[in-house]
Amino acid sequence: MKVLFAIQDAAQLAPPVLAYVVSCDCDARGGQGSIRFSKDLADAMRFPDVIEALDYWRKPSPLFPVRSVDGRPNRPLTAYTVVVMEEGEDPRKLGI
After folding, report:
1. pTM: predicted TM-score of the whole model, two decimal places
2. Least CB-packed of 39, 52, 85, 95 within 10 Å?
């Protein structure tokens, strides 16, 4: 199984996340999304393969599929740089 490990928000405006993705509600907060992270691997969302993990990361909001600001796809989780890791793989190997 695969897990998504969030490194940092893509704009690098906040401290590094360095936690597993637990869930993402793309429709929350008017389409800005609500993402839950955890340092505990037991809480991490699991995916059968890399393709499904990346599809989830790129998932758009069904209620707000396009951002009103720029007309681009509204995919809240892509605001974070993530790595698809094997379940149980040590994130410290990333060197961050």
Report:
1. 0.90
2. 95
